[in-house]
Specification:
Blueprint: H1 2-10, H2 12-17, H3 22-28, H4 37-49, E1 53-58, H5 66-85, E2 90-94, H6 105-121, E3 126-128, H7 136-149, E4 153-158, H8 164-171, E5 177-181, H9 196-212, E6 220-224, H10 228-240, E7 249-253, H11 258-266, E8 270-277, H12 282-291, H13 293-301
Parallel strand pairs: 1-2, 1-8, 2-3, 3-4, 4-5, 5-6, 6-7, 7-8
Helix pairs in contact: 1-12, 5-6, 6-7, 9-10, 12-13
Bound molecules: dihydroflavine-adenine dinucleotide.
Length: 305
């Protein structure tokens, strides 16, 4: 199931046709408040009233021209201004292939540098998403360079990759901000844990190891997962070490486990919702379907009258 949906998400022919279908557009609304920046910002207001902060991703990946990357960077700069004007507790989360990583890493870095400076000036924060394993090295290199000049920046790391414990140690001297996720791509056994147990135990070890090894340091850890049992397990292990819930944040996607997001915020966890928006939602939506077969049933039901 996972492989089929990830393949559907990469298929160029389907990528241009399926998103035009009305039922697809209706189904994706469960995970996306709308295609525009204003739709995304409007979705933040009730969350903020409930004590939940927001992150924003403008959907799209693997661009074909540097001009397109310039447009993406301009879009995020405008978004940062709009977040500040609206008084929203919001941060941005970018994919490096959207900023031109494939085409020219130096241009990508210049965009990152500009956006990180803009984020700091407007009181926001810039996060870098992690893509498939072909990009892990390049993404970490860009973050190392960025973080040296911009403290208000963070990077996503994936617990399914066997290399991640070494990557955390490599980044530790920078007092990094890390969003830990399980990983959304189809990676081979040679480089990734494939069993749920392997991915989950790696997740707990990485989270607890990162926070407990960085006491009194200005690090930030975001637990980017909807797996509440895992979050509570990590909170309990940290509590046993005398570390409170304010040592990490819980980050979930818009529309997924919304009731749990509210419950955790009420229970004293710091919670953030990542809101994705934009018209290039197709491959991203296919990854959400791949994660959970129940979402496929939901998508099929939305075709029916
Ligand atoms: P898991 O898949 O084990 O799910 C735990 C429970 O959560 C499920 O039983 C179900 O109840 C619920 N759930 C999970 N996914 C669901 C869905 N799609 N629909 C409905 N319910 C669902 N990946 C990546 O490779 N690079 C990245 O940069 C990011 N960034 C990112 C940011 C944030 C804030 C989040 C929450 C996630 C990501 N991801 C990501 C995706 C991540 O790698 C992973 O694929 C998903 O979060 C699904 O895994 P869970 O950790 O939620 O656990």
């Amino acid at each position: 199931m996972l492989r089929v949906f990830l393949w559907l998400g990469r298929n160029e022919w389907l990528k241009t046709r399926l998103p035009r279908l009305g039922f697809m557009r209706r189904a994706v609304r469960r995970f996306m408040p709308g295609e525009t920046m204003e739709d995304a910002l409007a979705a933040a207001r009730p969350l903020q009233a409930a004590g939940i902060g927001t992150k924003y991703t403008h959907l799209g990946e693997n661009l074909e021209s540097l001009a397109a990357a310039d447009a993406v960077a301009d879009h995020y700069a405008t978004l940062l201004d709009r977040i500040a004007e609206a008084g929203i507790d919001g941060e941005i989360s970018v994919k490096l292939t959207q900023l031109g990583l494939d085409l020219d890493p130096e241009t990508c870095f210049l965009h990152l540098d500009r956006l990180a400076g803009h984020a700091a000036r407007t009181g926001s924060y810039l996060w870098i998403d992690m893509e498939g394993s072909a990009y892990t090295d390049a993404t970490i290199l860009q973050y190392e360079r960025l973080r040296a000049a911009h403290p208000r920046t963070g990077i996503c790391l994936q617990s399914y990759l066997r290399r991640t414990a070494a990557d955390v140690e490599r980044l530790r001297p920078l007092d990094p901000s890390i969003r830990l996720v399980k990983g959304a791509y189809d990676e081979p056994e040679t480089i990734a844990f494939r069993s749920r147990r392997g991915v989950d135990s790696s997740y707990v070890a990485l989270a607890v190891g990162f926070v407990s090894g960085s006491r009194e340091r200005p690090v930030r850890l975001g637990l980017g997962t909807h797996d509440v049992a895992l979050i509570e397990q990590i909170a309990a292990q940290l509590a046993a070490l005398g570390i409170g819930r304010d040592a990490f944040e819980v980050e979930m996607l818009y529309g997924i486990r919304a009731a749990e997001q509210l419950r955790l915020a009420r229970a004293g966890y710091r919670v953030q919702t990542l809101i994705a928006y934009g018209d290039a939602w197709y491959p991203w939506y296919m990854r959400r379907l791949a994660e959970r077969p129940a979402n496929v049933a939901f998508a099929i039901r939305s075709i029916l009258p």
